[in-house]
Amino acid sequence: xxxxxxxxxxxxxxxxxxxxxxxxxxxxxxxxxxxxxxxxxxxxxxxxxxxxxxxxxxxxxxxxxxxxxxxxxxxxxxxxxxxxxxxxxxxxxxxxxx
Length: 98
Prior knowledge:
98 residues; two-stranded parallel ribbon; 2 helices; 4 strands; globular
């Protein structure tokens, strides 16, 4: 495997409402040696706040399909909530759903 060149201007943030998922993500970031570039936090979509960046952010989201949510309606509600949040507080941002 080749050497990865690190982009010093890159800053990534990840979040999840599940504390176990956050702990696993933090451990993975640390193990990869990327802690200075990636911040992981426990928070819900409702508490997502706009940050001051030079250009609109890109959001890559893996919604909790299937067993991680109790119903398909809950998945749809979560996606709609995220869409509203991005539209009102992150104008011009891009959303990728996995």
